[in-house]
Amino acid sequence: MIEVTGGATMGSRFVIDYADTTGIPVSRNSHFPVETSGWARADDGNRIGAVRHQFRDNAQGGFSAMLPVAFPATLPPWMITEHRWHLACEFSNWVCAFVDSAPQ
């Protein structure tokens, strides 16, 4: 994927290897039984971060999500803060698209 990560002025190119979850530095939460996780890798195959997005149904309807991302320690804190907004927008768009496409 090519993504502008956390307010960066240039896009970064990487792939997320969803087949490799070994050693992801984000703990699994047993209260969120559904997850999509994997290592983000640069073109040369080096690990540059990871995701462990976790989901659960709510008894009252709807769902809850935890969307942690592991970034390299050298990343400035402001980029992590900005990336939170990116995830909020991205997942909000996906949820709205799903709701809009659901049979009424």
Quick structural overview:
The protein has 104 residues and is of the alpha+beta class. The protein has one helix spanning 77-101; strands at 2-3, 12-13, 15-17, 34-41, 47-57, 63-66, 69-70.
Report on this model:
The protein is α+β, with helices and mostly antiparallel strands. The chain has one domain. It is built from one helix and seven strands. The radius of gyration is 15 Å and the shape is globular. The N and C termini lie far apart (33 Å).
Number of helical segments? Answer: 1
> What's the total count of β strands?
7
Summing up helix and strand content along with how strands pair, one would put the structural category as: alpha+beta
Main β-sheet description: 5 strands, antiparallel
Radius of gyration: 15 Å
Count up the domains.
1
- Global morphology: globular
| Unreliable runs | none
Helix content: 10-25%
Query: What distance lies between the first and last C-alpha atoms, to the nearest angstrom?
Result: 33 Å
Secondary-structure element order, as H and E? Answer: EEEEEEEH
Content of β-strand: 25-35%
Mean of residue pLDDT?
Answer: 89
